[in-house]
Design a protein that fits this description.
The complex is a heterodimer of chains A (359) and B (193). In chain A, strand 5 and strand 6 form a beta hairpin. Chain A has seven helices and 15 strands. With 359 residues, chain A is of the alpha+beta class. Chain A folds into two domains: 278 residues, no CATH class; 52 residues, no CATH class. With 193 residues, chain B is mainly α. Chain B has a single domain, classed as Arc Repressor Mutant, subunit A (Orthogonal Bundle), CATH 1.10.10.10. Helix content of chain B is 75%, strand content 0%. Chain B is built from ten helices and no strands. Chain B starts with a helix and ends in a 6-residue tail after the last helix. The chains are: A alpha+beta (359), B mainly alpha (193). Chains A and B meet through helix 1, helix 2 and helix 7 of A and helix 2, helix 3, helix 7, helix 8 and helix 10 of B.
Chain lengths: 359, 193
C-alpha cells in the first residue's frame, strides 16, 4: 500500500504544468540588462564621452552659455550612434535657434530602426513618469576615488502604461522632479559662491577670432549626489558665435565621432590650477573652421583602473568600513562602505544601499 | 540528466559568465539561456504575471550586477540564479505576508486564454489550480522545495545548492512539505490516487 507521500508525489507528477512566458518582458529586460552593463563599463572610464556630450549639446549650440541647465523634457530626438556603440538621444532640437535647456541620454544594446523609435518613446514616457515621481527607487550606489565622491547612482524602476517595467540608472539632476531641481539650483549656487566645486574638465572653443572657455564642474550636494554643471569661465566667457546647428555638429564631430585634426597640447591656468588641453581643429559642413580644446583633472577611474576595481570587488578584496543608514527620497536605505586599494595606490570606496525595511 | 551533461553545462556557463563580464554579446547569450526557466520558476511560485515580471527583473538585474561575484559562490551559475530568485520570492512573500484566499484563487488572466478548452485539459487545469491554491497555503520554505522538485524537476543535490541546505535538511523539508500539501489538497476536496 502506498504511503500518503507517495500518493501525493504521484499526483504531483501527473499534474500538467502550463507554459509561462513573456516575450515582451524578456526583450525589454534583456535590452535593459545589456544597456546597463554597457553603461556601467562606459561610466567606469575617464570622463565618459556622453557626459560631456549630454551637457555640451544642451549648452554650446546657441553661442551663449547658460550658467546651468534646467531640465524640462518633452520630446526626445535621436542623434546617432557613437563609436563605442551607444545610441545618443537628446531633447535638443536640431533646428533650435535659441538656447534650449536639454538633456542627453545614452543607451547601449543593439537596436534596429523600430527599436530606436521605441526607445525614444520610452524615454519620453520615463520622463513623464519622472516628472510625476511615479517610479520606485530600489538601489543606491556611491563611489569615491581617492576620497573624492564620483557621484551617487540611483536605480529606479519605471512601469510603462503598457505594463512593461524598466530599470533606469540615473546620476544627477536628470533624475529629479521640478521641485527637487529648484532646490538643487539653490544649493549649487551656494556651493559655487563658496568655491566648493571641482573643475573636472575645461573646454575651449575658438571661432572667428573669439575664444570661449567653459568649465565642467562637479558639485557634491548635501544628500551625497554628485552633480555636474557646465559653466562659463568668468575670465573667458566668449561668446563664440556658433548657431545651434553648428554647435551640435561640432560636438558630434568632437565627442561622438572624434573626427578632429590634432593640433597639439596647450596648458591653461583656471582658478589657480593647471589644465593640459588637447587641441583639435574641425571643419563644419558649412565650411566654418572651429578649434576645440579639452582637458581634465583626474576624478574618475581610468578604464584600466575600473577593470582592476571590478576585479577586486568581484573577489571581495575590499575592506568593509562600516554600515550606515540614510534617508534617500523619504525611504530609509542601509549602506555598506567598502574600501578597495588599486595597485597604483588609488583608493576607491564604494557604498551600496538597499532599502532597509522592504524592497 | 548525466553527469557529463551537467559538467558540460557548467563549463559552458563558466565561459559565458567569464566572457559576459566584458562582452555584451556573451551577457545576452547568458540571459537568453536562463530567462525562460527563471521566469517559469518565479511564475510557478507566485502565479501572478505582473509580480513574476517584477521579480524576474530583480533576479537578472541583481545577477548581472554581481556577475563578478559568481565564481566565488562555488555553485553552478544556474543554481546561483535560482538562489537569487528564491531570495527574491522570500522577500516578496515576507512583504506580502500571507496571500488572501481570494487572491490565491485567482490565476493569471493570460493563463486561461492560452489553454485549449477541451474537457481533459480543463481537468488538468483544475488540478493545477487546486495545487496552486494548496501550495499558497504552505510556508515559503516548503513551497520552494515542492516547486523546485516537482515543477522544475531539480535533483536533491541541485535543491541543496539552490537553498544552501544540507541534503538531510532538504529531504526533511520535502517530507514535511508533501505531508502539509496532502492535508491542504484533501481539505480542498481532492481525492488522492
Amino acid at each position: 500500500m502506498k504511503s500518503d507521500n507517495e500518493r501525493i508525489e504521484e499526483f504531483l507528477k501527473g499534474v500538467v504544468l502550463p507554459e509561462y512566458k513573456s516575450d515582451g518582458h524578456a526583450r525589454q529586460l534583456r535590452a535593459q540588462i545589456l544597456s546597463g552593463l554597457q553603461a556601467h563599463r562606459a561610466d567606469s572610464g575617464t570622463a565618459s564621452w556622453w557626459k560631456t556630450a549630454a551637457f555640451l549639446l544642451g549648452l554650446l549650440g546657441a553661442a551663449a552659455l547658460a550658467a546651468e541647465t534646467i531640465i524640462q523634457v518633452h520630446h526626445y530626438y535621436f542623434y546617432g550612434r557613437a563609436k563605442d556603440g551607444f545610441y545618443f538621444f537628446s531633447t535638443m532640437p536640431e533646428n533650435a535657434t535659441n538656447q534650449v535647456d536639454s538633456i542627453g541620454i545614452c543607451v547601449g544594446g543593439d537596436m534596429d530602426a523600430a527599436g530606436i523609435e521605441q526607445e525614444r518613446k520610452d524615454l519620453e514616457e520615463i520622463d513623464a513618469l519622472r516628472q510625476r515621481n511615479a517610479r520606485q527607487l530600489f538601489w543606491v550606489s556611491d563611489t569615491e576615488v581617492n576620497g573624492k565622491p564620483s557621484g551617487r547612482i540611483f536605480f529606479y524602476k519605471y512601469v510603462f502604461a503598457d505594463g512593461r517595467t524598466r530599470i533606469f540608472t540615473e546620476t544627477g539632476s536628470e533624475s529629479l522632479t521640478p521641485a527637487q531641481m529648484e532646490a538643487d539650483r539653490r544649493q549649487i549656487a551656494d556651493l559655487r559662491q563658496r568655491g566648493q566645486r571641482e573643475i573636472q574638465n575645461v573646454v575651449e572653443v575658438e571661432s572667428g577670432g573669439r575664444i570661449q572657455r567653459s568649465l565642467i564642474c562637479h558639485y557634491v550636494l548635501s544628500d551625497g549626489r554628485g552633480v555636474i554643471r557646465f559653466e562659463p569661465d568668468p575670465e573667458l566667457p566668449g561668446p563664440v558665435h556658433l548657431t545651434t546647428k553648428q554647435g551640435m555638429e561640432l560636438e558630434r564631430l568632437a565627442v561622438m565621432e572624434k573626427k578632429g585634426k590634432f593640433l597639439g597640447s596647450t596648458q591653461v591656468q583656471v582658478l589657480g590650477r593647471t589644465f593640459s588641453l588637447q587641441k583639435y581643429s574641425f571643419t563644419l559642413s558649412d565650411g566654418t573652421v572651429v578649434t576645440r580644446s579639452e582637458g581634465q583633472q583626474k576624478c574618475d577611474l581610468t578604464a584600466a583602473e575600473a577593470d582592476e576595481f571590478h576585479q577586486l570587488s568581484a573577489a571581495n578584496k575590499g575592506e568593509t568600513l562600516g554600515t550606515y543608514e540614510e534617508d534617500v527620497n523619504g525611504k530609509l536605505f542601509k549602506f555598506t562602505r567598502v574600501k578597495y586599494v588599486l595597485s597604483d595606490g588609488t583608493e576607491v570606496i564604494q557604498s551600496s544601499g538597499k532599502p532597509g525595511s522592504e524592497r | 540528466m548525466s553527469l557529463e551533461t551537467l559538467t558540460g553545462w557548467a563549463e559552458e556557463d563558466r565561459a559565458l559568465v567569464s566572457a559576459a563580464q566584458s562582452d555584451t554579446a556573451a551577457a545576452g547569450q547568458l540571459f537568453d539561456k536562463y530567462y525562460p526557466e527563471i521566469f517559469r520558476y518565479v511564475h510557478h511560485s507566485t502565479l501572478d504575471h505582473a509580480v513574476t515580471e517584477d521579480l524576474t527583473s530583480n533576479v537578472f538585474f541583481s545577477a548581472f550586477r554581481h556577475l563578478g561575484l559568481f565564481r566565488w559562490r562555488r555553485i553552478p551559475f544556474r543554481a546561483w540564479l535560482y538562489r537569487i530568485a528564491t531570495n527574491e520570492l522570500r522577500m516578496h512573500y515576507r512583504k506580502q505576508k500571507r496571500m488572501s484566499a481570494a487572491n490565491a484563487g485567482l490565476v493569471d488572466p493570460e493563463f486561461p486564454a492560452a489553454v485549449p478548452s477541451a474537457d481533459t485539459v480543463a481537468a488538468e487545469l483544475d488540478d493545477y489550480r487546486l495545487l496552486q491554491r494548496a501550495l499558497l497555503d504552505l510556508g515559503q520554505k516548503y513551497r520552494t522545495v515542492i516547486v523546485l522538485r516537482y515543477f522544475e524537476g531539480k535533483s536533491l543535490s541541485e535543491i541543496c545548492e539552490i537553498t544552501n541546505k544540507r541534503e538531510g535538511t532538504v529531504k526533511s523539508l520535502l517530507h514535511r512539505a508533501l505531508a502539509q500539501l496532502k492535508d491542504a489538497l484533501v481539505r480542498a476536496g481532492l481525492t488522492l490516487p
